[in-house]
Amino acid sequence: MSKFQTVRGMRDFLPSDAERLRHVEAAAKEVARLYGFVEIITPIVEHYELLAAKSGEEIKARMYAFNDLGGRKVALRPEFTASIARLMAATLRNEPKPLRLFSTGTLYRYDEPQFGRYREFWQSNFEIVGSSRPEADVEVLALTNHFMRELRLRNYWFKIGHVGILRGVLFDEGVKDEEQNVVMQLLDTKRWDEALRTARGFGVSEKGVMALKEIFKAKGKDASKVLKQVKKNLKEYASSVAAVENLQQIIELCIESGIKFDMIIEAGFARGLEYYTGMIFEPLVPEIEISLGGGGRYDKLVEMFGGESTPAVGVAHGLDRIALAMDKQNVTPKFSKQFVAVIPIGEKAVSKAMELALQLRKKGAAAELEVMGRSVSRALQDADRRRATHAVILGPKELKEGKAMLRDMKSHQQHLVGIEDVVEVISKKTD
Ligand code: HAM
Question: Does 125 sit in the ligand 1 pocket, CB within 6 Å?
Fold first, then answer.
């Protein structure tokens, strides 16, 4: 056995895993195109200070941070959003708004490795920068919905909340931002009682504690009912009421524009990242307990990094977890392209086979030329194992007649086709 294995929490992607991941990534790219997002590539290594600034304690404690040889404190990015906000505060500050920016790639968090949780993982990340309007929030929900559908995932729902509901009570009770963050972190990890004790410690009145308890209880599928109730209970907290109204607008717009997804509204929903200022959400499926993505509005981050006041809203989808969900739901990616094994018999057929393979590739069909000089049956066995959709066999007899044997690898049926027609026949097939 080899001396070396992958580092704990890191994975190799063997061909079928790599293909699966790239399929999910390709779907994200298609969604980006359909929703008008342009790609942006940022470095994996960033200044520690940038990444730590507003990520929250959970992520900060799990960062791959180190000093580089120049003595700079750097870290491997745990998310994309900080890098995007850095760009918005400097290089892109004068760009016309809104900007719709899309990225995919690997992220690093020193999480405890377990099902769906890795130390190197993949996200597709979408940010709409420059709009504070509910339409922008809805676009982010809509594109996530589109992405789930594109991959044919079933029974998913969005858990939706608004950080302004909880923060509004704390703010109106005079709790400072940093102290609010402590309470929000406790709520993110569902430590309700500890959160209430801490809030009391920060000077929240008994009336405030009661209001927080009401918020924790308020959840359900009927958004309009839940939000109406919350608004009634919190009427003395103007900041919370404004947050509820903003969320109502977002949900109403989704419903009115016919964007269909199941949702659970949770007024007491908090996410680990500290920079959120508005609507937050996570897509979930019943087969997996952890979220397939997460997003929300963050209107203060760019300003915090020295930029102008720039509202923004975005989402990151966990591509690894989406691939796991597809496995659990038995959703097989649909590869429409053909994959053809081109098998020459004897030396004389090689150049013709190679020519054919090149033509197939030009037409967009994947073609693999037999390069091991194996017998037809061995080459076919291999093509079957590699899930080729077709095989084209070129023997001396067929060549003489200007023909090739075209074999459907699924049905095992084969027939002679004129060499000139092979490419056309294969590229006409849809599956
Ligand atoms: P996040 O909730 O920290 O948000 O991560 C988003 C998604 O990344 C998670 O829902 C999950 O699917 C995936 N993910 C996170 N950690 C791991 C892990 N250790 N292993 C596998 N998958 C993981 C953000 O990253 C924000 N930047 C999202 C955002 C963009 N908000 C606004 N714009």
Answer: yes
